[in-house]
Specification:
Shape: globular
Number of helices: 6
CATH topology: Nitrilase/N-carbamoyl-D-aminoacid amidohydrolase
CATH architecture: 4-Layer Sandwich
Largest sheet: 7 strands, mixed
Number of domains: 1
CATH class: Alpha Beta
Structural class: alpha/beta
Helix content: 10-25%
CATH superfamily: Carbon-nitrogen hydrolase
Strand content: 25-35%
Length: 285
């Protein structure tokens, strides 16, 4: 798996589509099995939103653990994997505040970045079937990215994909991860078009890593269709809607450079100024 500190021309990425339940321990065992079963070299492994607990608001809040506890537990898994490992959404408790945190670990288990989901999903507010993440989580405060061996990588979670200003805050970058638990109804209408738009307008790779099947506690069908998209908007690999899958995809710096030379749109920006500060620094290292 990833070794050394030299800049990588290619990035070997593993996208892990899951059908997580409400049981933290069961999901953790699934993560361990997946990491133990990776039989091809990789540099980056990405798990979806709600990777360790997917259920009702009350269940998720009850499952939330202090950041130090979660970091210790998941850092050990990254050490075993010997790759940069992204847990795309974990309920983290700070006093009475619970956030949906994407946690990124280096191959030595060190925490590289923590992104707290900024935009909280609401669907059919006021109805009996409403989904309202504000009952579960507190909003995060802003974008967070990180550098790994010459690759600039931004973080986003699910509903964030509807807010292009978050993705633009990372530009210019090489890859933005969108970990998700998209519902089937919203996914059928919007998943592909939104992710492809974010890749095209920022001329970078975008990887969407999702939950699939139907959640056993909530009964909500999830969309699946984890995928990787190149800077021209072309889909490189895609999973199905119903079953857990592991996708392997190679990303290449040359493809980014080629698209930006052919159509230098990022140089033609007239509004919004230059690159924004991310997480208080350009990118976290």
């Amino acid at each position: 798996m990833a070794e050394g500190t030299a800049e990588l021309e290619r990035l070997r990425v593993v996208l892990v589509q899951m059908a997580s339940s409400q049981d933290w321990g069961e999901n953790l065992r699934s993560v361990r099995r997946t990491l133990a079963g990776l039989d091809a070299p990789c540099d980056l492994v990405v798990f979806p939103e709600n990777v360790l607990c997917l259920g009702s608001s009350a269940t998720v809040r009850a499952a939330a653990r202090p950041a130090a506890t979660v970091v210790e537990e998941l850092g050990e898994l990254a050490r075993q994997a010997r790759a940069v490992t992204v847990f795309g959404g974990v309920p983290v408790r700070d006093a009475e505040r619970v956030t949906n945190a994407a946690l990124v670990f280096a191959p030595d288990g060190r925490l590289l970045a923590r992104y707290d989901k900024v935009h909280l999903f609401q669907l059919d507010p006021g109805s009996d079937a409403a989904i309202d993440e504000t009952r579960t989580y507190t909003h995060g405060s802003g974008p967070v990215g990180f550098d790994w061996q010459g690759w600039r990588i931004g973080l986003s979670i699910c509903y964030d994909v509807r807010f292009p200003e978050l993705f633009r805050a990372y530009a210019p970058c090489d890859l933005v991860l969108c970990t998700a638990a998209f519902t089937r109804s919203t996914g059928m209408a919007h998943w592909h078009v939104l992710l492809r738009a974010r890749a095209i307008e920022n001329q970078c790779y975008v990887a969407g890593v999702g939950q699939c099947g139907t959640n056993p506690e909530t009964g909500v069908p999830l969309f699946g269709h984890s995928l990787a998209i190149d800077p021209w908007g072309e889909v490189l690999a895609e999973a199905g809607p119903e079953r857990e899958e592991v996708l392997h995809v190679e990303l290449h710096k040359g493809r980014i450079d080629g698209v930006r030379r052919r159509l230098p749109a990022l140089q033609h920006r007239r509004l919004g100024g230059g690159p924004q500060a991310v997480g208080g620094r350009r990118y976290r290292r």
